[in-house]
Structure formats: structure tokens, C-alpha cells
Design brief:
With 102 residues, the protein is mainly alpha-helical. The protein is 63% helix and 8% strand. The protein contains four helices and two strands; from the N terminus they run αααββα. A hairpin with a 2-residue loop joins β1 and β2. The protein is extended and about 50 Å long. The relative contact order is 0.14.
Length: 102
């Protein structure tokens, strides 16, 4: 399977925003590139992932089942990137503390 990060990102953005136009604006790419990314992802997965819903798009049952996995993959890659940077910096990490005053 040759799924790309661009395909996963485009798919999740369309699911979240409900349209190719809104996803393209958020991702700073053209509408045809978002449509092509989703079409390629559907071919790789072997299932229709989004369907027309009036003027927008909604995830199909297959798309709704696939979305959490796509989000998990992107999240794991983000965590891996942070871990690699921390290791390269000699194990230094950032501790963020916040408090709410009441």
C-alpha cells in the first residue's frame, strides 16, 4: 500500500471541513489536488471514503471507519518526530506548566 501523508491529511481535512473547497483553503493547495489525493487514497484503500451530501461531502461508512486510523497514523508520526528531535538534542525536553486561578 502506497498511502501518502498528503492523502491522509487531505482526507481528514475534508472529513472535518465537509468540502473540498474548505479543505483546499486550509491546506493552501488547489481543489483538484485535494480531489486527486482523496481519489488516490480511495484506490489504495479499496473503498469509497467520501460521498456527496448536497453541496458538501461526508464520510461514507468506510470513511468513518478509516478516519480514526488515519488520524492515529499522523499523530504517531508527529510523536516520532518530537522524540527524534529530543534525542538529537541530548534528551532535553520541554516542560510546560499551566495553572488556573480561581
Amino acid at each position: 500500500m502506497a498511502v501518502t501523508l498528503t492523502q491522509l491529511s487531505a482526507f481528514l481535512t475534508v472529513v472535518r471541513r465537509g468540502s473540498v473547497t474548505a479543505a483546499a483553503e486550509e491546506l493552501f493547495v488547489t481543489q483538484p489536488s485535494v480531489s486527486a489525493a482523496i481519489a488516490a487514497l480511495e484506490r489504495e484503500v479499496g473503498a469509497k471514503l467520501v460521498a456527496r451530501d448536497g453541496r458538501g461531502l461526508r464520510p461514507t461508512d468506510g470513511g468513518a471507519a478509516f478516519a480514526p486510523y488515519a488520524a492515529h497514523v499522523l499523530g504517531l508520526l508527529d510523536q516520532g518526530q518530537r522524540a527524534a528531535r529530543e534525542a538529537a538534542e541530548g534528551g532535553r525536553t520541554t516542560l510546560r506548566i499551566s495553572a488556573v486561578t480561581a
